[in-house]
Design a protein that fits this description.
Layout: E1 7-9, E2 15-17, E3 30-34, E4 37-40, H1 49-58, E5 60-64, E6 76-79, E7 81-93, E8 98-104, E9 108-116, E10 125-127, E11 131-143, H2 145-148
Parallel strand pairs: 7-9
Antiparallel strand pairs: 1-7, 2-6, 3-4, 3-5, 5-6, 7-11, 8-9, 8-10, 10-11
Length: about 160
């Protein structure tokens, strides 16, 4: 997906994080920590969508505010909090609904796209306003698991 500045408002509490030279990260990608580098959600794969979502949330850094092209090794700025507008499949939402990364089981998560989730273990953020009619973009308040504790009450188990 192309760079999209998804930040809309609120304190971002940014950090800077390493990126391996092989990784491509776009502005607006939710990213997770893999050992010592940031990676986009699409790098996660597992046997089920819920397992991928949980693995992502366990190491959720935040949302990339800078890009990293293939071959680059400079650190990037990552927002650990704030309200972002993410793409979603047409759906309705209630204020406070939990959302996680969209994806396909046995394939990968989708960068910059969220879906409603039932468990806090899969939650990267909460919906900031109600959408009574189907919408394909949703305002989400994110919370980095690594830097702010996220939304989960305990460690996920798969």
């Amino acid at each position: 997906m192309a760079d999209v500045m998804r930040w809309k408002y609120g304190d971002t509490n940014p950090i800077v994080h390493n990126v391996d030279s092989a990784q491509v990260i776009e502005i607006g990608d939710p990213v997770y920590q893999a050992t010592d580098d940031a990676r986009p959600a699409s790098e996660i794969s597992a046997d089920s969508l819920l397992n991928m979502q949980e693995a992502f949330v366990d190491n959720f850094l935040g949302v990339a505010m800078q890009r990293s092209k293939a071959g680059e090794t400079a650190v990037i700025r990552v927002a650990t909090t704030g309200t972002f507008e993410f793409a979603c499949a047409a759906a309705t939402f209630t204020e406070g609904d939990k959302v996680g990364m969209a994806g396909t089981a046995d394939v990968a998560l989708t960068d910059q796209t969220v879906i409603a989730v039932a468990t806090t273990y899969a939650t990267i953020g909460k919906v900031k306003k109600a959408y009574a009619s189907n919408t394909t973009a949703v305002l989400v308040q994110i919370n980095s698991t690594i830097f702010t504790g996220g939304f989960a009450d305990a460690t996920a188990s798969s």
